[in-house]
Input
Amino acid sequence: MKIIGTFLDEISCDIPHQNWGPAEWDKDFAAMKAVGIEEVILIRCGFLKQIAFPSKVLMAEEGCFEPYYDYPEMFLTLADKHNMKFYFSTYESCNYWLKGNYKKEIDISKRVCEEAWAKYGHHKSFAGWYVTNEVSKKVHGIIDLFAELGKFLKDLSGGLPVMISPYIEGKKAVPSNESVLNNDEGISIEEHYKEWDEIMSGIKGAVDIVAFQDGHVDFEELYDFLVANKEIADKYGIECRTNSESFDRDMPIKFLPIKWDKLWYKLKAAERAGYEKAITFEFSHFMSPNSMYLSAGHLYNRYKEYINK
Amino acid sequence: MKIIGTFLDEISCDIPHQNWGPAEWDKDFAAMKAVGIEEVILIRCGFLKQIAFPSKVLMAEEGCFEPYYDYPEMFLTLADKHNMKFYFSTYESCNYWLKGNYKKEIDISKRVCEEAWAKYGHHKSFAGWYVTNEVSKKVHGIIDLFAELGKFLKDLSGGLPVMISPYIEGKKAVPSNESVLNNDEGISIEEHYKEWDEIMSGIKGAVDIVAFQDGHVDFEELYDFLVANKEIADKYGIECRTNSESFDRDMPIKFLPIKWDKLWYKLKAAERAGYEKAITFEFSHFMSPNSMYLSAGHLYNRYKEYINK
Amino acid sequence: MKIIGTFLDEISCDIPHQNWGPAEWDKDFAAMKAVGIEEVILIRCGFLKQIAFPSKVLMAEEGCFEPYYDYPEMFLTLADKHNMKFYFSTYESCNYWLKGNYKKEIDISKRVCEEAWAKYGHHKSFAGWYVTNEVSKKVHGIIDLFAELGKFLKDLSGGLPVMISPYIEGKKAVPSNESVLNNDEGISIEEHYKEWDEIMSGIKGAVDIVAFQDGHVDFEELYDFLVANKEIADKYGIECRTNSESFDRDMPIKFLPIKWDKLWYKLKAAERAGYEKAITFEFSHFMSPNSMYLSAGHLYNRYKEYINK
Output
């Protein structure tokens, strides 16, 4: 079971920034490529006032700050160079859709993505879209948001694939800036199935790939959720991947690189459940020999041993 | 005052994993040896579903996951090579003894240790046992647990020594995954003395070494607790060491390497109180030049200067 | 907009210690100097029982612990060598002034600073004083404390300048050891102005430099507070600097190096508001190529690019 893609956590909401420039990113893309990572997915093009590129829409309408680098341009140039695929991502306002106004969220992201497509669409590595909004249930008008944005982005780009990465409302679904590690109770697999059967039914044709985050449930529960998610996705013709988180959710420091045993266990569970592709959140902090966290480099070595076995 | 032993925090409950393989561990054992560390103590052979070796007992009965490495085998091989002593540790279920069923806890650990002794007992570095359950008072049937397990392990192994490492219910005795740093009030030395006089009276003969953790009380309170602990241990013929924690309990990040001044202060307090041996929790994350935390390497250098003075 | 000074976070209250000795500090002073940092400011000479030099006053009267190094001596020697300016700082008891007895706080700090001046005043780099007490409002007798201590220190040293570094009671003014990142509501600029107009009126002549911390308000609010602070300081003839924090207040890990974009944004806001000098809290953990946090070295590189543009 191989990890073939990773998120690029620019702009981050809860992972401290590494302050890399083009040279450091070039080195990291090479490190990804060396272990078979072929796809890089921008986690979001903006979060509140922080944005990944000098978007006229976001600076004018949302008062976002001019970024120091044009990250998509940098990433696409590197993806071109390293022969990788890049997914551009929508904007996370933290305001509109989470507070009832998902139509405004759709509207902004449409215009930001139009701007991005005009600016970056010529890159050979521009390979798809990621819709950034993360949900575990059909809340905040998410079915309409995914369906309308997904269709729009495919139409805009001549049919490039659209990816989402939801989570499971499991025992470990707690806010990253709270000290607790667990809820009292996670969602049942039946309730989760029911929610996602309805959501996927509503977004089929507009969303091509669904990659559930694998870190919110207990390790021993994971397999059953993986099976359920794949079953629903298969039913609606959506490609199902696992987003195998490479950070550890069980430790007081939120977050540092995961213990290799845990990642290995999760990858094996996905393999057993019939998955063909894994992506991860994310390589550069948690699995990279270039990471600010030195244990990430050791995780890289363990993973490399595993795939070369 | 020298640190002659360290825990090996595999399997960890609250310290992020470094993802080391045999080569990294070899290097770290050499770094230990270079500053006089002669003993390595496995902190536990399992915690919930995570285990340190592919124990048939734990995989069959507790549903534990197969580990990537056989850590005891790796550690014993390295201890053989570096001429060090290794203590094997019991299993922490987090379920049975903490929820009233200490007899089941004893039963599992007995069988796991039998399995381990059969597998690893031939190593020349197999030098003793560590009973992993951490308490500050006579709760959860701990006297019977220590006494019965201790006696069993000594009988099993031809009298190898048994170690425990309790803590003091001091002001800093707060859960590692809560953000607070202090309780309102720590235990009084009188109450602590009374508890441990009773506990040590009940475990004498079964437990050979008690190494109280030194990080839960204010630095200015520590000396008095060190004196009390040694007095009780001496009374019952138990060897008394200090477990001088090398991580900092006073900082919002839980946990990073301790300030050298604090460790130095604690070691001096133990020396003044008549202690002859210190161990630490733990070298590889918090005092090692190989640690993922770079300040650990500087702590190593400060400690090396101190012991070479 | 250049950072011309940095705090030295010895003794720290919430940032883990790096355990550097003279060689590591020498290297770090050189790294500071290479990016134009000319001033180093001791954050405090003691905090609770931890102290930066073997002060007879603090060891005898406050029961403080003998420190391993004499930090002011080390820092002054290095500042002499690197041709930098050093500010000595007062003692933070955490007891007296915060609990109503600011007269005792003044009294201790006076005597500690007399001791320090006698010991260290001969160094050519001894360039000023920092009064360590951090406030956002006129609480705990702070006007009298700043005024009396400031005047005393200037008289003691032939008029060396006195600096303070208050904060703004903004949305991000939350305790470092709580997991939350935000208050419900920050102070209004009007209320802040009123408080500081009164405080600065009461300390003029005794305090020469005020450097407000810039991290407690939202980025988009910062400019207005910078303007207000400068306006008040100008009115009372106090030099106004920005203390541009180089750690990130928006992340669950408290604290790691800030994202360069954020620091860049804050520096630009101060420049726009007419500031001439920035200092930072603090270089050695958060902006240094020698930091235990590797992202600090990358921040250093980004900052170096920016000042060399």
